[in-house]
Design brief:
Layout lengths: L5 E4 L9 H14 L5 E4 L13 H11 L5 E2 L7 H13 L3 E4 L3 H6 L4 E2 L2 E2 L4 H5 L8 E4 L1 H8 L3 E4 L3 E4 L9 E3 L7 H11 L4 E5 L5 H12 L5 E5 L19 H6 L4 H15 L3 H4 L1
Parallel strand pairs: 1-2, 2-3, 11-12
Antiparallel strand pairs: 4-7, 5-6, 7-10, 8-9
Bound molecules: glutamic acid.
Glutamic acid binds next to loops.
């Protein structure tokens, strides 16, 4: 028998939640709760000035309105020390290197587009970073691969995946302004929170190659992943507030029934991933 899953919804409080977030939260909730598992809410609030902590309460009100039940786990802003400690470990092992390049310098160096933005061409790795300028720290993907050897991770829908760091290259693990990037923070948090099934949208599929690599480097447990298809707007675009899709808060305040909306989203989810029930 399968063990009950621990899943999570990990929104960044950079803007209101919209229908795509609701779908993601419902997917993670429904994979955990009916089978006696745990559904966690983690607020990913380390995005510097873009982060608006006051939105966390709005997110909770949105989830309750959808009829979901969850457990709160500590927000990322309370976990900076654990990120810094992991970064120190990686530094001591020579697996990350300082990089002072700006985005325009990276573009000027002829970087190619990867699955998560530009693939860093390794400028600071080869010439050394300028000590007078603020530095981010990047994973040396080549050294990482030499240490981990080939790795596999498993997506519940897409099946086994060979971890491929070339899709993202030498990604930033420590930002210039923060002790962690999304990739480092989320990998450490999912391990600390005991997440066993990382449920999130297919737009983050590529990031899981990096997260699997970090788990191997840092000796962290390896979960399974479930990347659900994205809910698209009528024009085929990803749903986002900036493209005019109404926020959950606006729908809630307008008096819409959140539980009815959640049921409609469950039907859509079922159409988006008809084989999910059999594979999870
Ligand atoms: N915080 C991320 C976001 O809001 C989600 C991260 C994840 O699910 O791994 O897009």
């Amino acid at each position: 028998m399968d063990c009950p899953h621990v899943t999570r919804f990990a929104p960044s409080p950079n803007g209101h939640l919209h229908l795509g977030h609701a779908l993601s939260a419902i997917a993670a909730h429904d994979l955990a709760r009916p089978g006696g598992g745990r559904f966690l809410l983690r607020i990913e609030d380390i995005d510097g000035p873009r982060s608006r902590p006051e939105l966390a309460d709005e997110f909770r009100a949105d989830l309750a309105w959808l009829g979901l039940e969850w457990e709160d786990v500590p927000a990322q802003s309370t976990r900076l020390a654990s990120y810094a400690a992991a970064a120190e470990t990686l530094k001591a092992r020579g697996l990350i290197y300082p990089c002072t390049c700006t985005r325009s310098e990276i573009e000027a160096a002829g970087a190619r587009e990867g699955s998560d933005g530009l693939i860093y061409p390794g400028t600071c790795k080869h010439r050394g970073a300028d000590p007078a300028r603020p530095a981010a720290w990047r994973l040396d993907a080549e050294k990482a691969l030499a240490q981990t050897g080939p790795l596999v991770w498993e997506d519940a829908l897409a099946g086994p995946q060979a971890a491929d760091m070339s899709l993202l290259g030498d990604i930033v693990l420590v930002r210039k302004d923060l002790p962690a990037s999304y990739h480092l923070a989320v990998t450490l948090d999912d391990a600390a929170d005991g997440v066993t099934l990382v449920t999130r949208g297919a737009d983050l599929f590529g990031a899981s190659h990096v997260h699997r690599t970090l788990q191997a480097l840092l000796g962290l447990p390896v979960p399974r992943w479930h990347h659900h298809p994205l809910l698209l707007a009528d024009d085929g675009q990803k749903l986002a507030k900036r493209r005019g899709s109404p926020s959950l808060a606006a729908r809630r305040e307008a008096g819409e029934d959140g539980r009815v909306l959640a049921q409609q989203l469950r039907v859509q989810l079922c159409h988006l991933e008809p084989d999910a029930a059999a594979s999870i």
